[in-house]
Design a protein that fits this description.
The complex is a heterodimer of chains A (about 240) and B (about 325). With about 240 residues, chain A is of the alpha+beta class. In chain A, about 15% of the residues lie in helices and about 30% in strands. Chain A is built from five helices and 15 strands. Chain B is globular, with a radius of gyration of 23 Å. Chain B has two domains: about 170 residues, 3-Layer(aba) Sandwich (D-Maltodextrin-Binding Protein, domain 2), CATH 3.40.190.10; about 140 residues, D-Maltodextrin-Binding Protein, domain 2, CATH 3.40.190.100. Classes of the chains: A alpha+beta (about 240), B alpha+beta (about 325). At the A-B interface, helix 1 of A face helix 8 of B. Chain B: Keywords: Signal.
């Protein structure tokens, strides 16, 4: 069975919009019973069912259901080596928030591709930064603006120790612009079903196994390109 | 006879030393280097060539075109390897024709500029002409943020071509259907890479010679031919109302880029000026340079050494 994803259908999609949609082939035995046959609009990502030839939403609810049924994210969001022709040097990270993919450029015009969760609309950003430092099971300290808007963050204002419930997960790659911390991170998550969705506060989240794998392959100083396409807000960090 | 020979030899040695020593001090020449790969390659090739053929030491310093031209005008910069026309027509008018402080080599490299899509975008969605971008339905093919408008890169902040692409988008009408993105070239090219890897559609400002045409199957959108009567460009540096006063609903004129050098340098080092005026890089050579630096990640200085070593016949011809 082959399934496809189309992304960021914030507005209801007409047929034309679907033709225009970005379709990523999922070579997976994704059970559509888990995704559901009903169409619910106004979500972030769509999954194409080739049997019914209909697009079904891949929203938070569907993502949870799928994960509960398979203990896995859809295959497209699992780590895989893909063909990737680029002028960027191996070791560079390219983040395509629109399609929810992070590429780690490899030699031979290939890349290791991982699924990611990205910022909610309004928190999107883009730019060229670098990995300033990395940490294992990092402490999470919510930024002041998050504390101001999210009452749940207040109790962690002094910092939440690393661990399985910590929002930063198993590893964090701290993104710097020159020598300045941008406050954005590529990090793990205790909520792996959120991969493929627009949920975070501008950070890039990955499954804990994936961020651990990525951190083992990346060097401090690596160039990180966050693509502008799909970024709701370009801050240029 | 023997003494006369020794005296003669001594005189020749002194003369040779004088010839060598005169130009050999810090920054005999300053080469301004653009931030795009072929310009970086050319700047380094010139540095190696000038050392090899004229014994001159050159400093290669990265700087933008406006600053480079100001430097050529003041004499702080000697050479700028890629002066793009018609992009920098206004600078040429000011410094080459007006103040006569900058010379251009007579032999330009043919170049092209326009809007490109991937082959898959053209074939799958029938987007082949620039007017397709102004079609609201077709423009949604490029919508990545769900606002109903497409997104496209029109160049980096500060490029003169970026201002002209804004004018062209207004003139063709796709400024209403497409969000025009300005960002560093690395980000734009990585977006093309990601789109090509996943079959996603993408439209973007393109110029050649450029390595992107070697990396991916790229198609330039067709446009009405350049018509000087319809090409009215006012640049932001010349008028705050530049956009409303400009109109360009036609393709770019055939572009060329030239080596620029300070007139004062030409007077000081006429053989160097003659050498620069003889250089006739081909578009294929420039594409190879771009690919070598940007895709193969060759060190510009080492690449230049190898290029000069492998093209001695051409350098000898340019030196005559």
């Amino acid at each position: 069975m082959t399934l496809s994803l189309a992304n960021r259908s914030i507005t209801p999609k007409s047929n034309d919009r679907r033709i225009a949609g970005r379709r990523l082939v999922l070579g997976t035995a994704l059970a559509l019973t888990a995704i559901g046959a009903t169409l619910v609009y106004a979500a972030q990502t769509q999954v194409f069912d080739p049997q019914t030839h209909k697009w079904v939403e891949y929203d938070k609810k569907k993502a949870r259901k799928y994960y509960a049924a398979h203990n896995e994210v859809p295959e497209a969001f699992r780590p895989q080596m893909v063909k990737f022709r680029t002028a960027e040097v191996p070791g560079t990270i390219i983040i395509d928030g629109n399609q929810h993919f992070l590429y780690l450029v490899q030699p031979g015009q290939r890349a290791m591709r991982y699924g990611i969760g990205v910022g909610r609309e309004g928190f999107g950003w883009a730019g060229i930064v670098r990995v300033g430092r990395m940490a294992e099971w990092p402490t999470w300290t919510p930024p002041a603006e998050m504390i101001a808007r999210d009452p749940n963050a207040v109790k962690h204002a002094a910092g939440m120790p690393g661990g399985p419930d910590n929002p930063l997960g198993a590893r964090a790659l701290y993104l710097y612009e020159r020598d300045q911390d941008t406050i954005y991170r590529i990090h793990g998550t205790p909520e792996p079903w959120t991969i493929g969705l627009d949920v975070s506060s501008g950070c890039i989240r990955m499954r804990n196994d994936d961020i651990t794998d990525l951190a083992s392959r990346v060097k401090v100083g690596a160039k990180v390109i966050v693509l502008m396409q799909g970024a709701a807000l370009y801050k240029g960090v | 006879m023997h003494n006369r020979f020794r005296q003669c030899l001594r005189r020749m040695s002194l003369a040779a030393l004088t010839m060598l020593a005169a130009p050999v001090h810090a920054a005999d020449l300053v080469i301004a280097m653009p931030n795009w790969p072929s310009g970086q390659a050319t700047a380094n090739i010139l540095k190696v060539s000038l050392k090899q053929h004229f014994g001159l030491d050159a400093d290669v310093r990265e700087m933008g075109t406006l600053i480079a031209f100001a430097g050529l005008d003041s004499g702080e910069v000697d050479i700028y390897p890629e002066v793009w026309l018609p992009n920098f027509d206004s600078l040429v008018k000011k410094y080459v024709d007006g103040r006569k402080t900058v010379d251009l080599s007579p032999k330009g490299v043919p170049a092209a500029q326009g809007i490109c899509v991937t082959r898959e975008t053209a074939d799958k969605y029938g987007i082949k002409d620039i007017s397709d971008l102004a079609d609201p339905k077709k423009a949604t093919v490029f919508d990545t943020d769900g606002d109903g408008k497409g997104e496209m890169w029109i160049g980096a902040l500060g490029w003169s071509s970026t201002s002209i692409e804004k004018i062209r988008a207004k003139s063709y009408g796709y400024e209403k259907t497409m969000t025009l993105l300005q960002m560093p070239e690395d980000m734009a090219m990585a977006a093309v890479d990601a789109a090509a890897a996943t079959g996603q559609s993408i439209a973007f400002y393109c110029y050649s010679p450029h390595h992107i045409f070697e990396l991916h199957d790229i198609v330039e959108l067709t446009e009405p031919k350049y018509d000087p009567a319809k090409w009215h460009i006012v640049m932001p540096s010349d008028d705050p109302d530049w956009l409303s006063k400009s109109e360009a609903p036609v393709a770019w004129d055939a572009s060329h880029f030239y080596i620029g050098f300070a007139s004062s340098t030409a007077a000081r080092l006429p053989k160097v000026a003659a050498f620069l005026s003889n250089i006739d890089f081909t578009a294929e050579e420039v594409t190879e340079m771009s690919y070598a630096l940007q895709v193969d990640r060759q060190d510009p200085a080492k690449y230049a050494q190898a290029w000069v070593a492998n093209h001695q016949d051409r350098l000898n011809a340019w030196s005559k």
